[in-house]
């Protein structure tokens, strides 16, 4: 049966309306939006064009007190960090990595625990209005079908739309840390390099695994393609050029996303400066032919102005992760410079132990506020429409779903969130739904979440799974697994002082807390111009 939401307040994020709210009758049939018409207009039913939407085959909802938006997209997250939520703070990324991941040599997780771990991420995402995720998954000691299969199954069972990537690294730790030859003891460098299999072995095993994982993902969600796999070399400093080239070729051949981390920290920028003879990582990726419209780059903080032009020309998407960047002290992405250059920007929560939350409404609000600190011209601060576009349309492209989801428009997948405008104080009084969505809403107003035309959240409960039972089971299994956490942490104590010294030396080279792309004065005046009339929030 089709459903028409009559007189709904809609933030469609389509080309015609952007983030400007309007009243509409929204007709949904099976898994797609059929029509979005000004409230009160006669609309076509799925069966008979020209008949009124109160046709017997259409269920009508009075949506006068409801707000409909496209489902939020989390374009960069790590569900595998769920087990390590809350295990560290006040440390930068390079030290955090030592404390927040299981050590090399640890036994792989049981498939059931992988399923439960992923289900925690799925539940948190859905209850927060997220309908699509790009989950960058890493497993130790390595990825297998036995560990990625439960990830596909969990997202499928919960009803999420998911692109699941297999992270791969073929560069040893000793070769991805600035000043490693000076700060790491010789025996530690040797051990690091000897413990890493040869790049050709890593690549052979990884791409064989990826082919099988892609086929396995396609068998989920009734073959609809709602669950997908994509390749993901972890980052340029963690991947050989051979791995990067082959991954890019595989992604293009399969019409899928290529996902990498990019310039998350100053240490990564410093490493690139020495490794690539003064060229930047972005220039190096361009030299290799890696960049393109299917490429999604998480973070993108320590960029130069030249990098911005290359990224814009390539059509790649940067995924902004403001909360993890703040928690780890990684830096502040050059928001306005990226937008001025024409680079597409999406939003992500990052991992469950680098942010400690997967709630995208938090990400949306912080993204809208953080960049007010980096520019005295307040007309250049993030616009509500830009932020919502990053959380929907741009996110859909970043996750590999361009043209399928990300806005409320005829023909697109019916992935949407229904907010009750009267349930909380968040929209009281209702002055501007878009601004209040960004700055006031915390998820408590969410009444329903729909994915692929299916109701997956209703009044705070997941409809397709028994969330309470799954969470209880996870708590019990996680407690047994984490018994060894203190021993793992102690295992890293010998390494941390050397990473700390690398960190100190890097910041001594250039102590500025802002990337070069954000430090260059633009030709505009720093005196705010007169604010234009009319709405500015449409992207």
TrEMBL record:
<dbReference type="Pfam" id="PF01979">
    <property type="entry name" value="Amidohydro_1"/>
</dbReference>
<keyword id="KW-0378">Hydrolase</keyword>
<dbReference type="InterPro" id="IPR011059">
    <property type="entry name" value="Metal-dep_hydrolase_composite"/>
</dbReference>
<protein>
    <submittedName>
        <fullName>Guanine deaminase</fullName>
    </submittedName>
</protein>
<feature type="domain" description="Amidohydrolase-related">
    <location>
        <begin position="68"/>
        <end position="456"/>
    </location>
</feature>
<dbReference type="GO" id="GO:0016810">
    <property type="term" value="F:hydrolase activity, acting on carbon-nitrogen (but not peptide) bonds"/>
</dbReference>
<dbReference type="InterPro" id="IPR050287">
    <property type="entry name" value="MTA/SAH_deaminase"/>
</dbReference>
<dbReference type="InterPro" id="IPR006680">
    <property type="entry name" value="Amidohydro-rel"/>
</dbReference>
<dbReference type="InterPro" id="IPR032466">
    <property type="entry name" value="Metal_Hydrolase"/>
</dbReference>
<feature type="region of interest" description="Disordered">
    <location>
        <begin position="513"/>
        <end position="539"/>
    </location>
</feature>
């Amino acid at each position: 049966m089709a459903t028409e939401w009559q007189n709904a307040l809609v933030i469609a994020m389509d080309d015609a309306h952007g983030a400007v709210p309007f009243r509409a009758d929204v007709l949904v049939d099976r898994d797609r939006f059929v029509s979005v018409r000004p409230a009160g207009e006669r609309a076509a039913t799925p069966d008979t064009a020209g008949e009124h939407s109160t046709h017997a085959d259409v269920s009508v909802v009075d949506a006068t007190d409801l707000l409909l938006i496209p489902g939020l997209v989390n374009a960069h997250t790590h569900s595998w960090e769920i087990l390590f939520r809350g295990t560290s703070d006040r440390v930068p990324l390079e030290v955090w990595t030592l404390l927040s991941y299981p050590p090399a040599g640890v036994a792989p997780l049981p498939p059931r625990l992988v399923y439960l771990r992923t289900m925690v991420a799925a539940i948190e995402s859905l209850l927060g209005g997220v309908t699509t995720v790009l989950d960058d998954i890493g497993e130790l000691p390595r990825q297998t079908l036995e560990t990625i299969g439960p990830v596909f199954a969990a997202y499928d069972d919960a009803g999420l739309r998911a692109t699941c990537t297999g992270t791969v690294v073929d560069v040893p730790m000793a070769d991805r840390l600035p000043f490693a030859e000076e700060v790491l003891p010789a025996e530690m460098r040797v051990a690091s390099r000897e413990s890493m299999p040869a790049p050709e072995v890593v690549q052979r095993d990884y791409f064989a695994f990826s082919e099988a994982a892609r086929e396995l993902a396609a068998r989920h969600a009734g073959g609809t393609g709602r669950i997908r796999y994509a390749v993901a070399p972890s980052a340029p400093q963690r991947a050989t050029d051979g791995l990067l080239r082959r991954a890019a070729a595989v992604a293009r051949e399969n019409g899928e996303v290529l996902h990498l981390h990019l310039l998350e920290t100053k240490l990564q920028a410093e490493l690139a400066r020495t490794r690539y003879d003064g060229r930047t990582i972005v220039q190096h990726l361009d030299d290799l032919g890696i960049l393109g419209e299917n490429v999604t780059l998480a973070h993108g903080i320590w960029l130069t102005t030249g990098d911005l032009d290359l990224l814009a020309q390539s059509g790649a998407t940067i995924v902004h992760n403001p909360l993890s960047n703040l928690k780890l002290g990684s830096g502040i992405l050059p928001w306005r410079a990226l937008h001025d250059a024409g680079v597409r920007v999406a939003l992500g929560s990052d991992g469950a132990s680098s942010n400690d939350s997967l709630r995208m409404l938090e990400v949306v609000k912080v993204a809208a506020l953080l960049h007010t600190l980096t520019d005295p011209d307040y007309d250049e601060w993030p616009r509500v429409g830009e932020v919502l576009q990053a959380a929907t349309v741009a996110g859909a492209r970043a996750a590999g779903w361009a043209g399928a989801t990300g806005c409320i428009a005829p023909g697109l997948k019916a992935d949407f969130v229904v907010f009750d405008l009267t349930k909380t104080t968040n929209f009281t009084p209702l002055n501007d739904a878009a601004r209040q969505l960004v700055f006031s809403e915390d998820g408590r107003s969410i009444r329903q979440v729909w994915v692929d035309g299916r109701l997956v959240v209703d009044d705070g409960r997941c409809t397709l799974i028994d969330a309470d039972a799954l969470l209880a089971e996870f708590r019990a299994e996680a407690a047994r697994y984490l018994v060894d956490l203190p021993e793992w942490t102690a295992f890293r104590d010998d390494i941390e002082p050397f990473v700390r010294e690398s960190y100190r030396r890097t910041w001594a080279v250039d102590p500025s807390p802002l990337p070069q792309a954000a430090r260059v004065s633009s030709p505009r005046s720093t005196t705010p111009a007169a604010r234009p009339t009319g709405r500015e929030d449409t992207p």
